[in-house]
Amino acid sequence: MALHTLKAVQTIPAPIDKVWEFISDPKNLAVITPPDMGFKTLSGDDRKMFAGQVIHYHVSPLLGIKIEWVTEITHVAPREFFVDEQRFGPYAFWHHKHFVKETAAGTEMEDVIHYKLPFGFLGNLLHPIVVKPKLEKIFAFRRQKLIELFGE
Q: Distance (Å, rounded) from C-alpha 58 to C-alpha 39?
């Protein structure tokens, strides 16, 4: 089993309260996801984030093929971190930790994702040429969008 890790760190030039308000609202995930992902929340985004919250999406990560993705927010510590875990979707395993902390330059946001691909050997072959570059592109888009939203 190959367990992959992706880490992204970004400093957002805004106070932690403002950043937390934005990232703890599930409706804002669509704002920071590239349009070509066909991301649409189907349910579970009607409240601010809380432990136990289940969010159901449609996403089209490859070739416009629509996939259902269900995640659960398993842990929330306001103004510190939250964790989402896939319950059903495109990965064999998905565990995503989102950390925020106040710094002199604003708010540092760190994402740590541990994930495993489906399809065994084939999934692992596709990782460096399809999956990892796609995830890096998604986080590059998010980085740019957050700069646009919060200024630099």
A: 6
Q: How many CA atoms lie within 13 A of 117 on its CB side?
A: 17
Beta bridge partners of 22: none
Domain boundaries, the chain: 4-150
Please list, in sequence order, all residues whose beta carbon lies within 8 angstroms of the beta carbon of residue 128, skipping any fewer than 6 positions away. none
CA proximity to 96, closest of 116, 78, 79: 116
**Alpha carbon distance 97, 57 (integer Å):** 19
pLDDT > 70? residue 152: no
3-59 pLDDT tens trace: 999 999 999 999 999 999 999 999 999 999 999 999 999 999 999 999 999 999 999
Fold of 4-150: Alpha-D-Glucose-1,6-Bisphosphate; Chain A, domain 4 (3.30.530)
Q: Which amino acid is at 26?
A: P
